[in-house]
Amino acid sequence: MHIPRRRLVASAAPLVLATCLLPTLAGVAATTTLTFGKNVTVYSGDYGEPGLSIHGQQVYVTTPGDGGAVWGVSANGGKTFEKLPTVKPPAGQTQGVAAGSDSDVAVGTDGTVYVGDLTIDGIEVSRSTDGGTTFPQQVFVNTDAAADREWLAVDGTGDEAIVYVAWHELASGTMFLKRSVDGGKTFDNVAHLLYSQGTTAGESAHNGTSIGQVSTDGKGHVYVVYGVTRLDTAPGSAIIPTISKIVVAVSSDYGVTWKDVVANPGYADANYGNFWMAAAVDQGGIAYVTYSGRDHDATDPMRVYLQASSDFGDTWTEPMVVSPEGGNSLFGWVAGGGPGVAVAAWYHTDATDKNQADIEWVTQVAQVRGLAGTTAGATKAAAAKGKAVAKPAALAAGTVVYRGTASDHVMHTGGICTFGILCGVVPNTSDDRTLLDFFKVTVAPDGMAAVVFSDNGDGRRDVTFAKQVGGPSAFPPPVKPPAGGGGSGSGGGSGGGSGSGGGSGSGGGGSMPATGLDVATLAGAAGALLVTAAVLRRRAARR
Question: How far is CA 47 from CA 39, 129, 422, in A?
Answer without folding.
Answer: 17, 26, 20
